[in-house]
Amino acid sequence: MCMDYRDLNRASPKDNFPLPHIDTLVDNTAKHSLFLLMDGFSGYNQINMALKDMEKTTFVTMWGTFCYKVMPFELKNAGETYQRAMVMLLHDMMHKEIEVYVNDMIAKSKGEREHVGNLRKLFERLRKFQLKLNPAKCTFGTTSE
């Protein structure tokens, strides 16, 4: 379902939560040799809408009136909201074992043993918060060479 949220987006204040700079993410991976590139599956749709904001996403179909219970992609601050959630859930791993840009993540390691430990820690965290990855868009065992 694709909705036109232009009016809602115009009325919404801008969320100034900072998105990471790509050059910083690249620099933070420079001394690592093993990588796992990951993509959050239906990323934005994994974030629940606040109850007070659900009605703002209301749409009408021939089967009735509905609203989103999860954040639709088209909302103005979707990227910032998702980044904030990732920072909250993964803050202690960011810039150490992983780098995160909205729904894209890179697990980074200097060696195989460290890589396995980092992945175990990351997957446990993702499982704890019921975050899903899109396996079709994940690349395992990438090297810097």
UniProtKB/TrEMBL annotation:
Q: What CDD domains has UniProt attached to this entry?
A: RT_LTR
Which InterPro entries does this UniProt record tie to the protein? Answer: DNA/RNA_pol_sf, Rev_trsase/Diguanyl_cyclase, RNA-dir_DNA_polymerase, RT_dom
Q: Where is the Reverse transcriptase domain?
A: 2-141
The record's section on Pfam families has: RVT_1
The record's section on PANTHER family has:
RNA-DIRECTED DNA POLYMERASE HOMOLOG (PTHR24559:SF457), TRANSPOSON TY3-I GAG-POL POLYPROTEIN (PTHR24559)
Q: What is this protein called?
A: Reverse transcriptase domain-containing protein
